[in-house]
Amino acid sequence: WGPGVGQLTTKARAAWAASRQTMLDAGNGPALDTIETALFCLVLEDLRPVDPLHACDHLLHGESRNRWFDKGVSLIVFADGTAGFNGEHCRLDGTTIIGFLDAILEAPPAPSGGTAVPALAPIEFTLDAQMHADISRAGADFAAYAAATSTLTVSVDFSSERAKALECSPDAFAQLAFQLAHSRAKGFVGATYESIATRSFKHGRTEAMRVVTPEVVEFARIMDDDGADPEARRAAFRAAADAHVARAKDCQAGRAPEQHLWELQRRLDIVDQADLALFDSPGWRIMRDDYLSTSAVPSPHITYWGFGSTSQKCIGVGYAMMPGRFDLYLSTPRTVSDQMLAFASCLRDAVREIEELLTDAR
What we know:
Elements: H1 13-25, H2 29-36, E1 41-44, H3 52-60, E2 73-77, E3 83-87, H4 94-106, H5 129-147, E4 149-156, H6 160-165, H7 170-186, E5 192-197, E6 206-210, H8 214-223, H9 230-252, H10 258-270, H11 282-287, E7 292-296, E8 315-322, E9 325-333, H12 337-360
Parallel strand pairs: 1-2, 5-7, 7-8
Antiparallel strand pairs: 2-3, 4-9, 5-6, 8-9
């Protein structure tokens, strides 16, 4: 692992940029260029994950000394052959990386062009005591940050095939189950972000979909209303699912404004202008204060995928609902890990109840 220069890439971007400039000033330009112009990083780990959660956590953060988190894609292979990736979200979205991996894994085997392997050579850095201290501090800070994050893998007995058999969008089913589970775990429906791809546009990446609609609030309420009959609950579910699908289509078509408004707010900050009244309004502040941050990356080659939570009360929900399975990786600050565990428990019950509700109508 050498001096562990990669630990500097765990710092906040502005702080890492300052450390990088210090390294450039010390004559480390060629070494940095070798790393920064590579197509991807290959990380060969010597540990064998004891279970999927251990593997997921190591893919998310690892020990940091043998990582370069600034790289768009790092392919990580464990000693037992288990493999995964870590992506730098600033440049790439999960769907882009999954497309890259799917193309590799689904390509027909190519005949070997030979057995010669290019010679390996270490990348040498010129580091003084101050730089070594900077690296050590970054590594310690990141280790503390990782230790303060609680995570959980969840596999639910459900699938996209089952959702379709119940005449429901798989993503709508998942998101409504999340809302019901959150309402029961925390006592309220909270602001929820879902990443929606806008790749039909030339430079499209994602739009921020706001999952909570009046129909979703009503669905969560009526599911725990002892006086509501099954037909009323089914009607509320269908209305909420239809609203979800319609909003997702609006996001895909570029008819959702949040990312555009967020960029305007960021540019006001850059030029040091006061925020518009909109950005200080209760609606904007409540909407942007996420309790759930969710994103789906469906691929037959991926079992779990995930990310860190986005605030001190948020649960990050990376999920994949596929034919035959429904797998999730959850993350949250350790100080509120009990809420994440309650959410996971309530989620299993929510999926079962909704499935039974829709099955009874058939």
